[in-house]
Design goal:
mainly alpha
């Protein structure tokens, strides 16, 4: 069964979730972090969460959908398989997607390294 990250072409305008994020970000008080969290909450297997910490960990300033997609596809889906293994090792149910495991690990790694603290102080 294919997944969103198996799409052959880079994701961009015209892909429904991309367009949804773009539309959400036009609403007052909805920036990239809130928009991606809203989409991720509704579709946990579909969309990675962007925030200042995760973007610093990944080195993706504003957009990270395609870099995350490429990382999950690389080396015959090695990262995706590793995330599924970590989920199992942690005793999490299969309802928790590998993508959510990725989001949490990336965020925790960044916080442990002190990333995002300046951005947090500016909010």
């Amino acid at each position: 069964m294919g997944t969103w990250f198996d799409e052959p072409d880079p994701l961009g305008p015209g892909w429904p979730a991309w367009d949804l994020e773009t539309a959400l970000r036009t609403l007052p008080g909805i920036g990239q972090t809130k928009a991606t969290k809203l989409i991720a909450r509704k579709r946990p297997r579909l969309y990675p969460i962007w925030d200042s910490v995760v973007s610093q960990v990944l080195g993706t300033e504003r957009a990270h959908l395609n870099p995350v997609r490429e990382a999950l596809r690389a080396e015959d889906r090695a990262l995706h398989h590793r995330l599924e293994s970590l989920r199992k090792e942690a005793g999490l149910p299969e309802e928790i997607s590998a993508l959510r495991v990725f989001d949490v690990i990336a965020w925790m790694d960044g916080k442990n390294r002190g990333l995002g603290e300046r951005a947090d102080q500016e909010r």
